[in-house]
Design goal:
Elements: H1 2-9, E1 12-15, H2 21-34, E2 37-40, H3 45-51, E3 60-63, H4 71-74
Parallel strand pairs: 1-2
Antiparallel strand pairs: 1-3
Helix pairs in contact: 1-2
Length: 79
Amino acid sequence: MILGELMMIGKLILISNNCPPLRKSEIEYYAMLSKVGVHHYNGNNVDLGTACGKYFRVSCLSIIDPGDSDIIKSLPGEH
């Protein structure tokens, strides 16, 4: 149940548009239980990895500490 435990401490979950449907539904379910926001990234997993500055694919991403960034404030419906 590591997925559920990580969602408990996250502030926001980003999911790429080509994330497998089963994984996407699991993430959305656990996010709903732990009251964490979910944002569907408008790009594939390669684009999300590049946006993070990584050289590998990222299909889902949990933001634990946003730091000085405005990523959570910039999304509609997020506080």
